[in-house]
Amino acid sequence: MAKREKTAESEKITINLGPVDLGRIDLLVQEGFFSNRTDFIRTAIRTQLAAQAGEIDRSVARHRLEVGLYDFLRADLEELRDKGEVLHVRVVGLARFAPDIDPDLARQTIASLTVLGALQASPALKSALADRIK
Description:
By secondary structure, the chain is an alpha/beta fold.
């Protein structure tokens, strides 16, 4: 499993805002403070994450979480299976399973999987691990 600190992709989210808040954002965009609504929202999110960085760091340490991009590779899972070992994985970010990983191999090697962020895996693999994904 390869763990990388940087984010490889972005995940789309949808939010609902009241007309007053939306109008205030549009005013800031119109005045040139932000290039568009998305720029404002990303900046606001990053500002809040920076303000809460200490709490996030303490929570990550307390819960023993991996932060960033966590790639599951077939060869790594085969090695674990051959050793008779299993993983209990907790990821904050993106957990990504290589497309060549067989659902049976994943079931043999993944005992539990918690992802706070996004999980990229084939539908068959997600189905095979459904009882282990928290």
